[in-house]
Amino acid sequence: MNDHQQLGHLEPATGATVESAAAALIAVWAHSRHSAAAAISSIQLQALLSIESHQHVNLARLGEALGAQPSSASRLCDRLEATGWVRRSAAHDDRREITIHLTASGKALLEELRGQRRDDLAQVIDEMPPTARAALLRGLRAFTLAADRVTEQRSHEADESWTTIAGRLLA
Q1: Is residue 129 included in any domain, yes or no?
Q2: Whole-angstrom Cα distance, residue 146 to residue 158?
């Protein structure tokens, strides 16, 4: 074993293979979003996912989650509200604060997108031989656990999990 393997660094070929697989997964993910019935932009999807993950959110927190100014988040919410995907209402504990919630239509859209993504992933995975599928699942489970451990070690650096960050980047 060479020094790179002992230190946990990727061999160039391994890194290239992982990057290629990640790109293929992103392509499948993007196809799913574009083939869904409703036309939704990346930023709109990011907003809906952020609202969903928080159950309800105010404009400032949504702006932070999206890396946008509250005024930009407000305009985005105007568009999302016009589509019927979100609803704004006064907060229960402070009537001056406005919170944003997903509507039934917004929840249905996210479920439709997830369903389309699962169908697209199944189509790709069905093309794999059974032994390769089993190996992929074992590898992905191990990768997810390792990502969780690394994220936990870095938890002092960020307040978001890798799944939240990935969801935003892949929206």
Answers
A1: no
A2: 17
